[in-house]
Design brief:
20 helices; D-Maltodextrin-Binding Protein, domain 2; alpha/beta; SBP; 5-stranded mixed sheet; about 450 residues; about 45% helix; Sugar ABC transporter substrate-binding protein; 3-stranded antiparallel sheet
């Protein structure tokens, strides 16, 4: 039976209740006992992945006969474990969740199986349906594709439409950061118990550095120029960072230096802030049935200054370890888990608000998804489609990435720099001092690139 026919049959099972998970197929403590007709999958423990785990035995294994043994870990732990296993090419795990940050790096190190042959042969998978920026971000230096997305996201501005209407404020469809700062000040002046905006300040390359780097990009700055010269204390980087720090200190949430995605989401849900710039994924929580602000949120494009767009680009994707001795079975799992049919299975079984969206054009055109995500699907689609993972700023870059720099050193460097930025947000040092220290760290971390 072809992969397409198998998927069509699985969709017909969507109306059935989700059965008890077979523990022999989906353990969380480590890879299963193996066997010729099984694969081991290592993945992050976010809600969308848990949904996949719950549906696999009844729908994928029942149709293919392939047992899937899951190891499910928190993000930091799973990144470490994947890095170790793939670097050693032990073959313990056939498939793992990797992001568009790791994919080109792993491909360069020959840790991943190239997927082009599978994509060419599995026509039912409809690879042309994958949004171009997502696919580009999962492509290696050699032009081959090395992972396929489970879901994707960008960033945009979320705001309280009822508060804006009450005080006669208007949010432009494509605001500038200057306009956002003015609106934040206006809300602060009008609402005693509500701050103008929430922005991440929590240390971490995936926390404060993510939104800050998009602000840097659109203000004309960059972490490195085309020759790998660090530019962290260049005028454009300083201007953007001072803007960000001043905005969150003057009109942002209390305790901003320790606020990340979760804290800002909570502030928005609890009505403590009028605006929030962050991941498009946040909209699902704001529009959930139990959200007290459901229906009171508007969505606008990521603010800009010198660029046409500025949203970041991120995807959790599936990669096959090159050392796997079951790449064909691994691809069959990926083909199912990343398919439009799987999204429909989730939508019909658990509700379209739970579908792992943000990767396929057809999802944004699906009437059921449009109904469930009516408040934000168009802005989300545009944000992802307009993201440029290769050239997100105003000058040439030496490595891909919108909110990160696609080199192995960035995870450590970004974390160290984030600590300096958070200290500036906390008022413990000036932005200039923070970036001077960051410049020194960047020069040390990337010296080998300039010696080439």
């Amino acid at each position: 039976m072809s992969p397409g026919k198998r998927r069509k049959r699985r969709v017909l099972l969507a109306s059935a209740a989700v059965g008890a998970l077979l523990t022999s197929c989906a353990g969380a403590g480590g890879p299963g006992s193996g066997g010729k007709n099984s694969i081991n999958v290592l993945m992050v423990n976010n809600p969308q992945m848990i949904t996949l785990q719950e549906l696999t035995a009844e729908h994928f294994t029942a149709e293919t006969g392939i047992d899937v043994h899951f190891t499910v870990l928190p993000e930091n732990e799973v990144r470490d474990k994947i890095g170790q296993d793939f670097a050693n090419q032990s073959g313990q795990y056939d498939v793992a969740t990797i992001s568009n940050y790791e994919t080109p790096i792993y491909a360069r190190n020959k840790w991943l199986e190239p997927l082009d042959p599978y994509l060419a042969e599995d026509t039912d998978y409809a690879v042309d349906d994958i949004l171009e920026p997502i696919q580009t971000s999962l492509t290696g230096d050699d032009g081959q594709v090395y992972a396929q997305p489970y879901y994707g996201e960008s960033s945009f501005l979320m705001y309280r439409t009822d508060v804006f209407e009450e005080h006669g404020l208007t949010m432009p469809e494509r605001p500038t950061w200057t306009e956002v700062a003015e609106l934040a000040a206006a809300v602060d002046a009008a609402e005693a118990d509500m701050k103008g905006i929430c922005l991440r300040g929590l240390p971490g390359w995936g926390e404060v550095i993510a939104p800050l780097t998009t602000v840097v990009n659109t203000h004309g700055g960059t972490w490195f120029d085309a020759d790998w010269e660090p530019r962290l204390n260049a005028p454009e980087f300083v201007e953007a960072t001072e803007f960000y720090v001043d905005l969150v200190r003057e009109h942002g949430e209390s305790g901003a230096a320790q606020s990340g995605y979760a804290e800002c989401l909570n502030n928005m849900v609890q009505g403590n802030t009028a605006m929030w710039y962050d991941a498009t994924a946040g909209a699902g929580s704001l529009e959930a049935d139990n959200s007290p602000v459901r229906g009171d949120i508007g969505y606008a494009a990521a603010p800009v200054e010198e660029t046409d767009s500025s949203g970041w680009l991120y995807t959790w994707a599936w990669g096959i370890q090159q050392a796997s001795d079951k790449p064909d079975k691994a691809w069959e799992f990926i083909s199912w888990a990343s398919s439009a049919e799987f999204e429909e299975l989730v939508g019909e079984t658990l509700g379209w608000e739970n579908a792992p969206a943000g990767k396929r054009s057809s999802t944004f055109e699906h009437p059921d998804y449009q109904e469930a995500a009516s408040a934000f699907y168009e802005v989300t689609r545009d944000a992802i489609s307009e993201a440029d993972p290769v050239s997100p700023g105003v000058q040439e870059r030496p490595a891909p990435g919108v909110q990160f720099v696609g080199i192995p050193e960035f995870s450590d460097l970004g974390t160290l720099v984030s600590q300096e930025i958070s200290a500036a947000i906390a008022g413990q040092q000036s932005v200039q001092d923070a970036l001077d220290a960051s410049q020194d760290m960047a020069e040390s971390a990337t010296e080998r690139y300039r010696e080439r």
